[in-house]
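Quick check before the chapter quiz. The format below is the same one you will see on the exam, so make sure you can read both the input and the output lines.
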Amino acid sequence: MLSPQSLSETDRRLVAAWAADCAERVLSSFENDAPGDDRPRDAIARARAYARGDLDSAGEIRRRFVAGRAAASVSAPGAIAAARAAAQASGVAHMGAHALGAAAYAVKAVSIDRPDGVAAEIDWQVAHMSADVRAALLLLPPVGEDSAGPLVAGGLLARGILGTTIRALQDRIAAGPP
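Here is the expected output.
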């Protein structure tokens, strides 16, 4: 049985583009630290290609960890968070809940590099959801209330600023358009 965090392939393709947009907003944090490393940029491009239907789920599931490995090549916390945002965006092909992970890691990067910009970043993310993306994200269980998947209770995405951000996003999504 599939996890409710999986989403249908159609919904994963919808949320992949939004996740890529979220990750791209903080990509410079990584690229400033590792200008020759294109793994996060490539992951974002692949998430967009997946969203358009140019790439298949199976291929992207095999490649989803590439950008995450880029996080180990930098030392600045904002750069690490930016690489993880890109990795989460590319992971949407595997499981739709990774879209919220991409958004949360983008907010984490902002919280490190521009602490006063966190609320504005969340506002941007919510404002840039289409009605279809919002509807797909509404299908995900609340962070910390499922027994498996990226949003699992006690898991990395359910703790700290990541969990706080995903809770805030899910509350805003449930409240309806801004």
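If your answer matched, good. Residues 9-175 form one domain.
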